[in-house]
Amino acid sequence: MFAAARSLRLAATRSGNYAGLPRSMIARNMNSKVNGPVVGIDLGTTNSCVAVMEGKTAKVIENSEGARTTPSVVAFTKHGERLVGLPAKRQAVVNSANTVFAFKRLIGRKFSDAEVKQDAAHW
């Protein structure tokens, strides 16, 4: 398992997602003791979820609608209200210009990055 995580970190570092930060700044020593709660966030392209470690088991936290996953969608209404998850997804057809989705691949990239510029042409 650690080998897989290590290779993912190396791939992310090569692709620039960690912006050249040294490994010591992005990963804790696996031999160190964890104090306090541990929170895990699964930021997916389509859906996201959050879990907290309770002892040796992870408990997925339900969102305000009682679901264990939340659509990875954010929208801004004309009144300045911010919608997240299912409410944002529901109104995406009528408010597409102010709805953001599939943004995971852009996290950690500079606006001047070629891939970001290519995506921006479709916004």
Automatic annotation (TrEMBL):
InterPro entries: ATPase_NBD, Heat_shock_70_CS, Hsp_70_fam. It comes from the Eukaryota. One of its GO terms (molecular function) is kinase activity. Pfam families: HSP70 (PF00012). Signal peptide: none annotated. Belongs to the heat shock protein 70 family. This is Protein kinase domain-containing protein. It comes from Ganoderma boninense. The gene is I1RYF8.
